[in-house]
């Protein structure tokens, strides 16, 4: 039996509704994951090279980005970073939150990066118990798995943290974790003293644990 016009119109509207409500998945004609980052006012260097696909629910900002495998690299003079094969979170203009799949090594501990906020020409990264800000121009290029930004092409490597970072002026106390809010104008010697304090604390804890294990 032929489909009449009155039946066809509601079906067409239903298909259109389902298409609009579906999460955006990458295709040959879709913007790349790096284009999406730029669309929300973030630089492409927040993701390493090699994102093979992504999906994005534009109504909620919930996204997943996929790599072929886990990805890790060091940035000279800075931190070690590690990406899982699936990265997820919620994206909006100038803010990435509820992040999962990205971690940074601070001293001897891997911490999950849970939020990134753009504040003018800086990006603030939060690991929950501490945060650090870096100039946005450090993220104009995508790092490469394994070698980061130092991949043997002879160019100068950017250093993420010329001043203050996650580790600087953030130190553990055995009974609790305390953070110091530090401005760029703080006396650097104070920060170095705090870093020395961290090293001493970690060394003492290591010695104490070793003694306990040997008893």
TrEMBL record:
Keywords: Signal
InterPro entries given in the database record: At5g01610-like, DUF538
Pfam families for the chain: DUF538
Signal peptide: 1-25
Coiled-coil ranges from the UniProt annotation: none
Top-level taxon in the UniProt lineage: Eukaryota
Gene3D superfamilies assigned to the protein according to its UniProt record, in alphabetical order: At5g01610-like
Full protein name: Uncharacterized protein
Lineage: Eukaryota, Viridiplantae, Streptophyta, Embryophyta, Tracheophyta
């Amino acid at each position: 039996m032929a489909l009449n016009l009155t039946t066809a119109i509601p079906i067409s509207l239903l298909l259109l509704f389902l298409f609009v409500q579906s999460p955006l998945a990458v295709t040959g004609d879709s913007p790349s994951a790096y284009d999406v980052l730029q669309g929300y006012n973030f630089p492409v260097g927040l993701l390493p090279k090699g994102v093979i696909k992504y999906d994005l629910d534009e109504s909620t900002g919930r996204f997943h980005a996929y790599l072929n495998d886990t990805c890790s690299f060091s940035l000279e003079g800075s931190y070690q970073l590690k990406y899982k094969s699936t990265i997820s979170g919620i994206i909006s203009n100038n803010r990435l939150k509820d992040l999962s799949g990205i971690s940074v090594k601070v001293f001897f501990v891997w911490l999950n990066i849970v939020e990134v906020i753009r504040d003018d020409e800086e990006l603030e990264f939060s690991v929950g118990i501490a945060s650090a800000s870096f100039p946005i121009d450090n993220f104009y290029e995508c790092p490469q798995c394994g070698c980061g930004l130092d991949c043997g092409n002879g160019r100068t490597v950017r250093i993420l943290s010329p001043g203050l970072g996650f580790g600087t002026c953030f130190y553990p106390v055995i009974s609790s974790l305390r953070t110091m809010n530090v401005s760029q104008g703080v006396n650097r010697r104070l920060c170095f003293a705090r870093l020395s304090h961290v090293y001493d604390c970690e060394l003492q804890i290591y010695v104490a644990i070793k003694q306990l294990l040997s008893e």
